[in-house]
Specification:
Blueprint (H helix, E strand, L loop, with lengths): L1 H19 L1 H4 L5 E11 L2 E10 L28 E7 L4 E5 L11 E6 L7 E8 L4 E4 L3 E2 L3
C-alpha cells in the first residue's frame, strides 16, 4: 500500500511540475490581421500589415523583458528575452521584433511590403524564448481582410 501511495504522490508532484513549467503552460499564439496601413518612407510607398495576438494575455511580461545576459540584437544589448519573427507560409522570414518589452505589444505587430508587391496569402509568427530555447508557432493568418 505504501508503494501505491508513493507512486500516486510522485505522479501528482510530476503533474504539478509540468503544469508550472513555462513550456507546458503557454499556448501557441493565435494571430489575426487587424488591418493595413499605407505610408511613405525613404522615397517609397509601403503597406504595413498589422496583427494582434488574440491570446496575448496568457503570456507573462517576463517573457518580453530586457535580457542583457543573452546575446544582443544588433547594437541593442538589452533586447527582449523573447523575439518574434514573421514568416510567409513557405517559411521565408519577413520581419522580426527583438525588443517588444511587454506582452501587450503583441497587439501591435506588423510587417511591411513595398506597394505593388504581392503579399503572401498566409503568414505566421514564431516567438522564440531565448532563455529556455522554446518556440511558440502561431496559426496561419490571412494577409487580406
Amino acid at each position: 500500500m505504501n508503494v501505491v501511495k508513493s507512486l500516486v504522490f510522485f505522479g501528482a508532484i510530476m503533474t504539478s511540475a509540468l503544469a508550472a513549467s513555462p513550456a507546458a503552460a503557454l499556448p501557441n499564439p493565435n494571430l489575426y490581421l487587424t488591418g493595413t496601413e499605407y505610408y511613405s518612407a525613404n522615397g517609397h510607398n509601403w503597406i504595413r500589415y498589422k496583427y494582434d495576438v488574440f491570446n496575448k494575455d496568457q503570456y507573462p511580461d517576463a517573457l518580453f523583458a530586457g535580457a542583457p545576459g543573452l546575446p544582443p540584437c544588433g547594437l541593442n544589448h538589452n533586447s527582449s528575452r523573447t523575439w518574434v519573427d514573421f514568416f510567409d507560409e513557405t517559411g521565408k522570414r519577413l520581419y522580426g521584433f527583438c525588443a517588444l518589452g511587454k506582452t501587450s505589444n503583441l497587439g501591435s505587430l506588423w510587417f511591411s511590403l513595398e506597394e505593388g508587391v504581392l503579399p503572401p496569402s498566409y503568414i505566421y509568427i514564431e516567438m522564440t524564448d531565448r532563455q529556455t530555447n522554446t518556440k511558440y508557432k502561431s496559426n496561419l493568418a490571412d494577409t487580406t481582410m
